[in-house]
Protein backbone atom coordinates (compact mmCIF):
# COMPACT_ATOMS: atom_id res chain seq x y z
CA UNK A 1 0.00 0.00 0.00
CA UNK A 2 2.82 2.38 0.88
CA UNK A 3 4.51 1.83 -2.48
CA UNK A 4 1.23 2.55 -4.34
CA UNK A 5 0.83 5.83 -2.51
CA UNK A 6 4.39 6.87 -3.34
CA UNK A 7 3.86 6.10 -7.03
CA UNK A 8 0.62 8.07 -7.08
CA UNK A 9 2.30 11.00 -5.36
CA UNK A 10 4.83 11.15 -8.19
CA UNK A 11 2.13 11.28 -10.88
CA UNK A 12 1.26 15.02 -10.66
CA UNK A 13 4.85 15.93 -11.43
CA UNK A 14 4.95 13.43 -14.30
CA UNK A 15 1.61 14.69 -15.62
CA UNK A 16 2.88 18.27 -15.50
CA UNK A 17 5.88 17.34 -17.63
CA UNK A 18 3.64 15.64 -20.13
CA UNK A 19 0.48 17.78 -20.11
CA UNK A 20 1.11 21.34 -18.89
CA UNK A 21 1.27 23.93 -21.70
CA UNK A 22 4.86 23.89 -22.91
CA UNK A 23 5.50 27.63 -22.64
CA UNK A 24 4.25 27.81 -19.04
CA UNK A 25 6.11 24.63 -18.13
CA UNK A 26 9.41 25.83 -19.61
CA UNK A 27 9.26 29.29 -18.04
CA UNK A 28 8.07 27.91 -14.71
CA UNK A 29 11.08 25.61 -14.51
CA UNK A 30 13.63 27.97 -16.07
CA UNK A 31 13.01 31.23 -14.21
CA UNK A 32 13.99 30.00 -10.70
CA UNK A 33 17.15 28.44 -12.18
CA UNK A 34 17.96 31.70 -13.97
CA UNK A 35 17.61 33.62 -10.71
CA UNK A 36 19.85 31.21 -8.79
CA UNK A 37 22.49 31.41 -11.54
CA UNK A 38 22.21 35.20 -11.63
CA UNK A 39 22.98 35.34 -7.90
CA UNK A 40 25.93 32.98 -8.39
CA UNK A 41 27.28 35.16 -11.21
CA UNK A 42 27.56 38.08 -8.82
CA UNK A 43 30.64 36.40 -7.36
CA UNK A 44 32.28 36.67 -10.80
CA UNK A 45 31.94 40.42 -11.06
CA UNK A 46 31.72 42.09 -7.64
CA UNK A 47 35.41 41.65 -6.72
CA UNK A 48 36.51 42.84 -10.14
CA UNK A 49 34.43 46.02 -10.05
CA UNK A 50 35.98 47.16 -6.76
CA UNK A 51 39.49 45.87 -7.48
CA UNK A 52 39.46 47.83 -10.75
CA UNK A 53 39.46 51.01 -8.63
CA UNK A 54 42.96 50.04 -7.45
CA UNK A 55 44.36 50.22 -10.98
CA UNK A 56 44.70 48.21 -14.15
CA UNK A 57 47.52 46.00 -12.81
CA UNK A 58 45.44 44.95 -9.79
CA UNK A 59 42.45 44.24 -12.01
CA UNK A 60 44.52 42.24 -14.51
CA UNK A 61 46.07 40.22 -11.66
CA UNK A 62 42.68 39.22 -10.26
CA UNK A 63 41.54 38.38 -13.80
CA UNK A 64 44.50 35.99 -14.10
CA UNK A 65 43.19 34.06 -11.07
CA UNK A 66 39.95 33.23 -12.88
CA UNK A 67 41.04 29.83 -14.31
CA UNK A 68 42.18 28.61 -10.87
CA UNK A 69 38.99 29.80 -9.20
CA UNK A 70 36.92 28.25 -11.97
CA UNK A 71 38.68 24.93 -11.46
CA UNK A 72 37.95 24.99 -7.72
CA UNK A 73 34.30 25.76 -8.40
CA UNK A 74 33.96 23.02 -11.04
CA UNK A 75 35.54 20.38 -8.79
CA UNK A 76 33.06 21.32 -6.04
CA UNK A 77 30.15 21.29 -8.52
CA UNK A 78 31.25 17.92 -9.90
CA UNK A 79 31.33 16.38 -6.42
CA UNK A 80 27.96 17.99 -5.70
CA UNK A 81 26.41 16.64 -8.91
CA UNK A 82 27.66 13.16 -8.08
CA UNK A 83 26.19 13.34 -4.57
CA UNK A 84 22.95 14.78 -5.94
CA UNK A 85 22.40 11.94 -8.41
CA UNK A 86 23.17 9.12 -5.96
CA UNK A 87 21.44 10.63 -2.92
CA UNK A 88 18.21 11.54 -4.77
CA UNK A 89 18.02 8.06 -6.29
CA UNK A 90 18.56 6.44 -2.88
CA UNK A 91 15.95 8.72 -1.33
CA UNK A 92 13.42 7.69 -3.98
CA UNK A 93 14.19 4.05 -3.20
CA UNK A 94 13.77 4.82 0.53
CA UNK A 95 17.25 3.42 1.12
CA UNK A 96 18.14 5.78 3.97
CA UNK A 97 21.37 3.98 4.81
CA UNK A 98 22.58 4.72 1.27
CA UNK A 99 21.32 8.31 1.60
CA UNK A 100 23.55 8.82 4.64
CA UNK A 101 26.51 7.11 2.98
CA UNK A 102 26.11 9.35 -0.08
CA UNK A 103 26.19 12.51 2.04
CA UNK A 104 29.04 11.36 4.29
CA UNK A 105 31.30 10.11 1.50
CA UNK A 106 30.50 13.18 -0.61
CA UNK A 107 31.51 15.49 2.24
CA UNK A 108 34.66 13.38 2.69
CA UNK A 109 35.55 13.94 -1.00
CA UNK A 110 34.84 17.65 -0.59
CA UNK A 111 37.25 17.76 2.36
CA UNK A 112 39.99 16.07 0.32
CA UNK A 113 39.47 18.57 -2.53
CA UNK A 114 39.72 21.50 -0.10
CA UNK A 115 42.99 20.12 1.34
CA UNK A 116 44.49 19.86 -2.17
CA UNK A 117 43.51 23.46 -2.96
CA UNK A 118 44.93 24.61 0.38
CA UNK A 119 48.28 22.99 -0.46
CA UNK A 120 48.22 24.75 -3.83
CA UNK A 121 47.44 28.05 -2.09
CA UNK A 122 50.44 27.64 0.17
CA UNK A 123 53.04 26.49 -2.36
CA UNK A 124 51.74 26.60 -5.92
CA UNK A 125 50.48 30.09 -6.68
CA UNK A 126 53.85 31.57 -7.71
CA UNK A 127 54.41 28.70 -10.17
CA UNK A 128 50.88 29.25 -11.53
CA UNK A 129 51.47 32.94 -12.25
CA UNK A 130 55.01 32.61 -13.55
CA UNK A 131 53.80 29.96 -16.02
CA UNK A 132 51.66 32.74 -17.52
CA UNK A 133 54.67 35.07 -17.91
CA UNK A 134 53.55 37.16 -14.93
CA UNK A 135 56.03 39.18 -12.87
CA UNK A 136 56.35 42.40 -10.89
CA UNK A 137 53.20 44.06 -9.51
CA UNK A 138 50.93 41.59 -11.33
CA UNK A 139 52.65 38.69 -9.57
CA UNK A 140 52.38 40.35 -6.16
CA UNK A 141 48.70 41.25 -6.55
CA UNK A 142 47.82 37.87 -8.01
CA UNK A 143 49.51 35.92 -5.22
CA UNK A 144 47.91 38.09 -2.53
CA UNK A 145 44.47 37.29 -3.89
CA UNK A 146 44.76 33.66 -5.01
CA UNK A 147 46.74 32.41 -2.01
CA UNK A 148 44.03 33.53 0.41
CA UNK A 149 41.17 32.20 -1.71
CA UNK A 150 42.87 28.79 -2.01
CA UNK A 151 43.96 28.57 1.64
CA UNK A 152 40.31 29.05 2.63
CA UNK A 153 38.89 27.01 -0.25
CA UNK A 154 36.89 24.94 2.25
CA UNK A 155 34.38 27.81 2.31
CA UNK A 156 33.71 27.55 -1.44
CA UNK A 157 33.77 23.75 -1.62
CA UNK A 158 31.64 23.48 1.51
CA UNK A 159 29.09 25.99 0.26
CA UNK A 160 28.61 24.25 -3.09
CA UNK A 161 28.41 20.70 -1.71
CA UNK A 162 26.13 21.60 1.22
CA UNK A 163 23.81 23.47 -1.14
CA UNK A 164 23.71 20.41 -3.40
CA UNK A 165 22.63 18.32 -0.41
CA UNK A 166 19.70 20.69 0.06
CA UNK A 167 18.82 20.33 -3.63
CA UNK A 168 19.06 16.55 -3.40
CA UNK A 169 16.19 16.45 -0.90
CA UNK A 170 14.06 19.06 -2.69
CA UNK A 171 14.92 22.03 -0.45
CA UNK A 172 16.00 24.38 -3.23
CA UNK A 173 14.49 27.39 -1.40
CA UNK A 174 17.09 27.13 1.37
CA UNK A 175 19.84 26.76 -1.22
CA UNK A 176 18.68 30.01 -2.84
CA UNK A 177 18.69 31.81 0.53
CA UNK A 178 22.26 30.74 1.31
CA UNK A 179 23.43 31.87 -2.15
CA UNK A 180 21.78 35.27 -1.74
CA UNK A 181 23.26 35.79 1.74
CA UNK A 182 26.75 34.89 0.50
CA UNK A 183 26.52 37.29 -2.42
CA UNK A 184 25.18 40.14 -0.27
CA UNK A 185 27.93 39.67 2.36
CA UNK A 186 30.56 39.74 -0.39
CA UNK A 187 29.11 42.89 -1.96
CA UNK A 188 28.94 44.72 1.40
CA UNK A 189 32.42 43.72 2.57
CA UNK A 190 34.29 44.36 -0.69
CA UNK A 191 34.48 48.19 -0.50
CA UNK A 192 34.93 48.11 3.28
CA UNK A 193 37.94 45.81 3.19
CA UNK A 194 39.51 46.99 -0.06
CA UNK A 195 39.39 50.73 0.67
CA UNK A 196 39.34 50.70 4.51
CA UNK A 197 35.88 51.99 5.38
CA UNK A 198 34.10 52.02 8.77
CA UNK A 199 37.37 51.71 10.69
CA UNK A 200 38.61 48.67 8.77
CA UNK A 201 42.22 48.92 7.52
CA UNK A 202 42.58 49.30 3.74
CA UNK A 203 43.79 45.91 2.48
CA UNK A 204 43.62 46.46 -1.28
CA UNK A 205 43.60 43.28 -3.37
CA UNK A 206 43.99 41.16 -0.24
CA UNK A 207 40.78 42.75 1.09
CA UNK A 208 38.89 41.54 -1.98
CA UNK A 209 40.05 38.00 -1.26
CA UNK A 210 39.01 38.29 2.41
CA UNK A 211 35.57 39.58 1.39
CA UNK A 212 35.16 36.69 -1.05
CA UNK A 213 36.14 34.11 1.58
CA UNK A 214 33.81 35.65 4.16
CA UNK A 215 30.95 35.75 1.65
CA UNK A 216 31.48 32.10 0.76
CA UNK A 217 31.95 31.26 4.44
CA UNK A 218 28.64 32.92 5.34
CA UNK A 219 26.83 30.95 2.65
CA UNK A 220 28.58 27.75 3.75
CA UNK A 221 27.65 28.28 7.41
CA UNK A 222 24.03 29.02 6.51
CA UNK A 223 23.82 25.99 4.21
CA UNK A 224 25.23 23.84 7.03
CA UNK A 225 22.64 25.26 9.44
CA UNK A 226 19.80 24.53 7.00
CA UNK A 227 21.07 20.98 6.48
CA UNK A 228 21.30 20.30 10.21
CA UNK A 229 17.92 21.83 11.08
CA UNK A 230 15.77 21.34 7.96
CA UNK A 231 17.27 18.35 6.15
CA UNK A 232 15.84 15.58 8.32
CA UNK A 233 16.29 12.99 5.55
CA UNK A 234 20.06 12.97 6.14
CA UNK A 235 21.93 11.92 9.27
CA UNK A 236 25.09 14.03 9.41
CA UNK A 237 26.78 12.04 12.17
CA UNK A 238 30.30 10.89 11.25
CA UNK A 239 30.67 8.61 14.27
CA UNK A 240 32.36 5.41 13.11
CA UNK A 241 32.61 6.73 9.54
CA UNK A 242 34.86 4.89 7.07
CA UNK A 243 35.21 5.90 3.40
CA UNK A 244 33.17 3.53 1.23
CA UNK A 245 34.97 2.86 -2.09
CA UNK A 246 31.75 1.66 -3.78
CA UNK A 247 29.85 4.84 -2.88
CA UNK A 248 32.81 7.07 -3.81
CA UNK A 249 33.02 5.28 -7.16
CA UNK A 250 29.35 5.97 -7.85
CA UNK A 251 29.71 9.65 -6.94
CA UNK A 252 32.78 9.97 -9.17
CA UNK A 253 31.10 8.18 -12.10
CA UNK A 254 28.60 11.03 -12.32
CA UNK A 255 30.78 13.85 -11.02
CA UNK A 256 34.06 13.33 -12.90
CA UNK A 257 32.62 14.14 -16.38
CA UNK A 258 31.33 17.46 -14.99
CA UNK A 259 34.76 18.14 -13.46
CA UNK A 260 36.47 17.33 -16.77
CA UNK A 261 34.20 19.77 -18.63
CA UNK A 262 35.04 22.49 -16.12
CA UNK A 263 38.74 21.63 -16.24
CA UNK A 264 38.69 21.95 -20.02
CA UNK A 265 37.14 25.40 -19.77
CA UNK A 266 39.61 26.43 -17.06
CA UNK A 267 42.58 25.29 -19.16
CA UNK A 268 41.23 27.19 -22.16
CA UNK A 269 41.01 30.46 -20.22
CA UNK A 270 44.46 29.78 -18.74
CA UNK A 271 45.81 29.28 -22.28
CA UNK A 272 44.20 32.50 -23.48
CA UNK A 273 45.75 34.45 -20.60
CA UNK A 274 49.16 32.92 -21.27
CA UNK A 275 49.01 33.84 -24.95
CA UNK A 276 47.80 37.38 -24.25
CA UNK A 277 50.56 37.92 -21.67
CA UNK A 278 53.06 37.28 -24.46
CA UNK A 279 51.72 40.14 -26.58
CA UNK A 280 52.70 43.80 -26.51
CA UNK A 281 49.52 45.01 -24.73
CA UNK A 282 49.73 42.15 -22.21
CA UNK A 283 48.21 43.45 -18.96
CA UNK A 284 45.59 45.60 -20.73
CA UNK A 285 44.51 42.68 -22.93
CA UNK A 286 44.14 40.42 -19.88
CA UNK A 287 42.18 43.15 -18.09
CA UNK A 288 39.82 43.41 -21.06
CA UNK A 289 39.34 39.63 -21.07
CA UNK A 290 38.70 39.69 -17.32
CA UNK A 291 36.11 42.44 -17.69
CA UNK A 292 34.43 40.48 -20.46
CA UNK A 293 34.23 37.27 -18.40
CA UNK A 294 32.74 39.21 -15.51
CA UNK A 295 29.98 40.65 -17.71
CA UNK A 296 29.47 37.60 -19.93
CA UNK A 297 27.90 35.52 -17.18
CA UNK A 298 24.92 37.89 -16.93
CA UNK A 299 24.10 37.17 -20.57
CA UNK A 300 24.87 33.45 -20.56
CA UNK A 301 23.30 32.52 -17.20
CA UNK A 302 19.67 32.88 -18.40
CA UNK A 303 20.46 30.60 -21.34
CA UNK A 304 22.07 28.06 -19.02
CA UNK A 305 18.90 28.27 -16.92
CA UNK A 306 16.91 27.39 -20.03
CA UNK A 307 19.32 24.54 -20.72
CA UNK A 308 18.81 23.10 -17.23
CA UNK A 309 15.03 23.37 -17.56
CA UNK A 310 14.98 21.83 -21.05
CA UNK A 311 16.86 18.67 -20.05
CA UNK A 312 14.16 17.07 -17.84
CA UNK A 313 11.33 18.20 -20.15
CA UNK A 314 12.99 16.76 -23.26
CA UNK A 315 13.99 13.58 -21.42
CA UNK A 316 10.48 13.03 -20.03
CA UNK A 317 8.71 13.54 -23.35
CA UNK A 318 11.24 11.40 -25.17
CA UNK A 319 10.55 8.62 -22.69
CA UNK A 320 6.81 9.17 -23.20
CA UNK A 321 7.35 9.05 -27.00
CA UNK A 322 5.69 12.45 -27.32
CA UNK A 323 7.60 13.80 -30.30
CA UNK A 324 5.33 16.81 -30.79
CA UNK A 325 5.89 18.21 -27.26
CA UNK A 326 9.57 17.40 -27.45
CA UNK A 327 10.10 19.38 -30.66
CA UNK A 328 7.83 22.17 -29.44
CA UNK A 329 9.91 22.77 -26.30
CA UNK A 330 13.11 22.69 -28.36
CA UNK A 331 11.74 25.34 -30.73
CA UNK A 332 10.67 27.53 -27.82
CA UNK A 333 14.05 27.01 -26.16
CA UNK A 334 15.84 28.11 -29.32
CA UNK A 335 13.62 31.20 -29.66
CA UNK A 336 14.10 32.26 -26.04
CA UNK A 337 17.85 31.61 -26.18
CA UNK A 338 18.18 33.60 -29.41
CA UNK A 339 16.14 36.45 -27.90
CA UNK A 340 18.30 36.59 -24.77
CA UNK A 341 21.54 36.44 -26.75
CA UNK A 342 20.36 39.08 -29.23
CA UNK A 343 19.69 41.41 -26.30
CA UNK A 344 23.17 40.62 -24.99
CA UNK A 345 24.66 41.32 -28.41
CA UNK A 346 22.91 44.69 -28.62
CA UNK A 347 24.11 45.55 -25.11
CA UNK A 348 27.76 44.88 -26.00
CA UNK A 349 27.47 46.51 -29.43
CA UNK A 350 25.99 49.83 -28.31
CA UNK A 351 27.24 50.17 -24.73
CA UNK A 352 30.73 48.63 -24.87
CA UNK A 353 32.46 51.75 -23.54
CA UNK A 354 29.95 52.20 -20.69
CA UNK A 355 30.32 48.55 -19.69
CA UNK A 356 34.10 48.91 -19.56
CA UNK A 357 33.82 52.03 -17.43
CA UNK A 358 32.19 49.87 -14.74
CA UNK A 359 35.72 48.52 -14.28
CA UNK A 360 37.32 51.98 -14.17
CA UNK A 361 38.77 51.41 -17.65
CA UNK A 362 41.75 53.50 -18.74
CA UNK A 363 41.86 55.16 -22.15
CA UNK A 364 44.06 52.30 -23.43
CA UNK A 365 41.66 49.71 -22.04
CA UNK A 366 38.73 51.46 -23.75
CA UNK A 367 40.67 51.61 -27.01
CA UNK A 368 41.34 47.85 -26.93
CA UNK A 369 38.21 46.67 -25.10
CA UNK A 370 35.36 48.36 -26.97
CA UNK A 371 36.17 46.75 -30.36
CA UNK A 372 36.87 43.45 -28.58
CA UNK A 373 33.44 43.44 -26.89
CA UNK A 374 31.74 44.13 -30.22
CA UNK A 375 33.63 41.37 -32.05
CA UNK A 376 33.16 38.72 -29.34
CA UNK A 377 29.44 39.42 -28.84
CA UNK A 378 28.92 38.84 -32.56
CA UNK A 379 29.17 35.11 -31.79
CA UNK A 380 26.34 35.07 -29.24
CA UNK A 381 23.62 33.77 -31.58
CA UNK A 382 25.82 30.80 -32.49
CA UNK A 383 26.50 30.07 -28.81
CA UNK A 384 22.76 30.26 -28.02
CA UNK A 385 21.82 27.51 -30.46
CA UNK A 386 24.82 25.43 -29.44
CA UNK A 387 23.78 25.51 -25.76
CA UNK A 388 20.22 24.42 -26.60
CA UNK A 389 21.44 21.56 -28.81
CA UNK A 390 23.70 20.51 -25.94
CA UNK A 391 20.61 20.13 -23.76
CA UNK A 392 19.29 17.55 -26.25
CA UNK A 393 22.51 15.56 -26.05
CA UNK A 394 22.35 15.54 -22.24
CA UNK A 395 18.62 14.77 -22.09
CA UNK A 396 18.93 11.76 -24.38
CA UNK A 397 21.93 10.37 -22.54
CA UNK A 398 24.58 11.35 -25.10
CA UNK A 399 27.21 12.57 -22.64
CA UNK A 400 30.02 11.93 -25.09
CA UNK A 401 28.41 14.11 -27.76
CA UNK A 402 27.89 16.86 -25.16
CA UNK A 403 31.57 16.68 -24.19
CA UNK A 404 32.73 16.61 -27.82
CA UNK A 405 30.65 19.69 -28.72
CA UNK A 406 32.14 21.62 -25.79
CA UNK A 407 35.65 20.36 -26.54
CA UNK A 408 35.24 21.42 -30.19
CA UNK A 409 34.32 24.98 -29.21
CA UNK A 410 37.09 25.36 -26.65
CA UNK A 411 39.69 23.61 -28.82
CA UNK A 412 38.95 25.78 -31.85
CA UNK A 413 38.90 28.86 -29.60
CA UNK A 414 42.34 28.21 -28.12
CA UNK A 415 43.86 27.16 -31.45
CA UNK A 416 42.54 30.26 -33.23
CA UNK A 417 43.72 32.53 -30.36
CA UNK A 418 47.21 31.10 -30.73
CA UNK A 419 47.28 31.30 -34.54
CA UNK A 420 45.88 34.84 -34.66
CA UNK A 421 48.30 35.96 -31.94
CA UNK A 422 51.19 35.01 -34.23
CA UNK A 423 50.23 38.00 -36.39
CA UNK A 424 51.10 40.28 -33.46
CA UNK A 425 47.81 42.16 -34.01
CA UNK A 426 45.69 42.00 -30.87
CA UNK A 427 42.51 43.12 -32.67
CA UNK A 428 42.61 39.94 -34.76
CA UNK A 429 42.79 37.68 -31.69
CA UNK A 430 39.23 38.58 -30.63
CA UNK A 431 37.88 37.02 -33.83
CA UNK A 432 38.69 33.63 -32.32
CA UNK A 433 35.35 33.77 -30.47
CA UNK A 434 33.10 34.02 -33.59
CA UNK A 435 35.29 31.44 -35.35
CA UNK A 436 34.87 28.96 -32.49
CA UNK A 437 31.15 29.72 -32.19
CA UNK A 438 30.47 28.93 -35.85
CA UNK A 439 32.67 25.81 -35.82
CA UNK A 440 31.03 24.45 -32.65
CA UNK A 441 27.51 25.11 -33.94
CA UNK A 442 28.20 23.33 -37.23
CA UNK A 443 29.63 20.36 -35.34
CA UNK A 444 26.66 20.34 -32.92
CA UNK A 445 24.20 20.43 -35.83
CA UNK A 446 26.01 17.45 -37.37
CA UNK A 447 25.75 15.50 -34.10
CA UNK A 448 22.09 16.53 -33.64
CA UNK A 449 21.20 15.40 -37.18
CA UNK A 450 22.61 11.93 -36.43
CA UNK A 451 20.72 11.68 -33.14
CA UNK A 452 17.51 12.99 -34.74
CA UNK A 453 17.58 10.36 -37.50
CA UNK A 454 18.26 7.50 -35.08
CA UNK A 455 16.15 8.43 -32.04
CA UNK A 456 13.72 11.29 -32.63
CA UNK A 457 12.47 10.83 -36.20
CA UNK A 458 11.25 7.23 -35.59
CA UNK A 459 8.93 8.42 -32.78
CA UNK A 460 5.22 8.56 -33.71
CA UNK A 461 3.95 12.01 -34.76
From TrEMBL:
InterPro entries: MATE_fam, MATE_MdtK, MdtK-like. It is a multi-pass membrane protein. The keyword Iron-sulfur does not apply. The chain crosses the membrane at residues 25-46, 66-87, 107-125, 145-162, 174-198, 204-226, 247-270, 298-318, 330-352, 372-396, 408-429, 435-452. Keywords: Antiport, Cell membrane, Ion transport, Membrane, Transmembrane, Transmembrane helix, Transport. It is found in: Cell membrane. One of its GO terms (molecular function) is xenobiotic transmembrane transporter activity. GO terms for biological process: monoatomic ion transport. Pfam families: MatE. GO terms for cellular component: plasma membrane. The keyword Ion transport applies. Multidrug efflux pump. Belongs to the multi antimicrobial extrusion (MATE) (TC 2.A.66.1) family. This is Probable multidrug resistance protein NorM. It comes from Termititenax aidoneus.
Amino acid sequence: MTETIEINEALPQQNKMGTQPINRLLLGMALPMMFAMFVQSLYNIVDRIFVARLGEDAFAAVSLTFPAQMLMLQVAVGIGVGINALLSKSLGERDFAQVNKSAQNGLFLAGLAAVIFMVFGGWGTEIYFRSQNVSGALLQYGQEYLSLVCLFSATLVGQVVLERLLMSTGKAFYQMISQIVGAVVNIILDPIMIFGLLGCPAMGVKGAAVATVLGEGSACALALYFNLTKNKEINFSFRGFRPDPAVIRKICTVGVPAILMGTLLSLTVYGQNRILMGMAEASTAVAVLGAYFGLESFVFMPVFGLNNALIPIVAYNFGAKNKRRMLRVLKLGCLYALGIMLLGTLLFQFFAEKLLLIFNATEQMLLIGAPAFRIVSGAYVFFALGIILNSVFQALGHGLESFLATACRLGVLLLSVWLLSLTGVLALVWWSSPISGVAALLFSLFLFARIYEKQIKPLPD
